[in-house]
């Protein structure tokens, strides 16, 4: 494990940035955690059973650091 603790921030994503019109938001300490939550949501609510590299890139681009 090599998580950079000094840059620990809460990351947020609005699904609306990836799937326009969706009100789902997720937050987490790491990109991985946020992507995990969005992936679970996408599978459940959007029928997306696989996060492709392209989709992952869009999710990463949509993650706002606050
Ligand atoms: Zn959604």
| Widest β-sheet, arrangement of strands | 2-1-3
Tally the helices: what do you get?
Answer: 2
Gyration radius over CA: 12 Å
Find the structural class using helix and strand composition: alpha+beta
Listing every helix as H and every strand as E from the N terminus to the C terminus, the arrangement reads EEHHE
Please, how many domains?
A: 1
Q: Approximately what portion of the residues adopt beta-strand conformation?
A: 15-25%
Ends: how far apart? 24 Å
The total beta strand count reads 3
Largest sheet: 3 strands, antiparallel
Could you explain how this protein is built, in words?
By secondary structure, the chain is an alpha+beta fold. The chain contains 2 helices and 3 strands, in the order E-E-H-H-E. It has helices at residues 31-46, 53-62; strands spanning 11-14, 25-28, 64-65. The mean pLDDT is 86. It binds zinc ion (ZN). Zinc ion binds at residues 15, 19, 22, 24, 41, 45-46.
Short structural description:
The protein has 66 residues and is α+β, with helices and mostly antiparallel strands. It starts with 10 loop residues before the first strand and ends with a strand.
Q: Main traits of this protein?
A:
three-stranded antiparallel β-sheet, about 70 residues, globular, about 40% helix, alpha+beta, binds zinc ion, 2 helices
